[in-house]
Amino acid sequence: MNDHQTTGRRLGALRASILLAGLAAGLVAVSAANPPQETVTATSGTRIQGGKASVEELVSEFLAALAARDRDALHRLRFSETEYREVIYPGAVEVGKPPRKVTQQGSDLAWGLLDTKSAYSEQALLSSHGGRKYRVVEMKFAEGEKDYAGYHAYKQLRLIVQSDDGAEVEIRTGSIGEVDGQYKFFSFIRD
């Protein structure tokens, strides 16, 4: 690939980022100008399905999905849309505070942006690491841990992994949440 093609790809990615940011800003402005009447709150009966029993088990499944180049398995390691809308998004408040009241429009916007960005990150992870078998050398969370009213967050996973040939690589990916002893990724967005 020559410098002109590389510059063209970078400009295309920049334009896409600017378009997404503009779309998000426009939706927020529309939402503020036309507040919806319907309010959605957390459903206390919503349970987390298919989570793993520990961060270590979740990371092991994450690496197995990458090794198998299995995008569906990777996607299943994330909170579902229902789990996000009914548990995670409303529960993203300080401990001791009631769940936030969430408008349908706000929930749609938050989920849409998170899901779209995460899908791109999933593809990037599979392109960079798909088909490779790794073992964990070191695991840390770049932004630490934090308790929220609805969950415990492990922010910005950073893995140092070693391949079969002994090479060490860093895999940077998104955050993990724990709800009622079930661990899943919020997303695979690494920043």
Helicity level:
40-55%
- Kindly name the structural category: alpha+beta
Q: Mind telling me the CATH class of the largest domain? A: Alpha Beta
Distance between the termini: 27 Å
**Strand arrangement in the largest pleated sheet:** 4-5-8-9
Q: Could you give the count of β-strands? A: 9
Radius of gyration: 18 Å
Order of helices and strands: HEHHHEHEEEEEEE
Q: What would the average pLDDT be, to the nearest integer?
A: 83
Largest sheet, in brief, is: 4 strands, antiparallel
CATH-defined topology of the largest domain: Nuclear Transport Factor 2, Chain: A
Oligomer state of the chains in this structure: single chain
Low-pLDDT segments: 2-44
At CATH level 2, the architecture of the largest domain is Roll
Instruction: Tally the structural domains.
Output: 2
- General form: globular
The fraction of residues in strands falls at 15-25%
Number of discrete helical segments: 5
Describe the overall structure.
The protein is α+β, with helices and mostly antiparallel strands. The protein has 2 domains: 1-31; 39-185, Roll (Nuclear Transport Factor 2, Chain: A), CATH 3.10.450. It has 5 helices and 9 strands. It has helices at 3-33, 55-67, 71-76, 81-88, 104-129; strands at 39-40, 102-103, 134-141, 145-147, 152-154, 157-163, 168-172, 176-179, 182-185. Strands 4-5-8-9 form a 4-stranded antiparallel sheet, with no helix packed on it. A 3-stranded antiparallel sheet has the order 3-6-7, with helices on one face. The protein starts with a helix and ends in a 6-residue tail after the last strand. 25% of the residues are buried. Mean pLDDT is 83; it is low at 2-44.
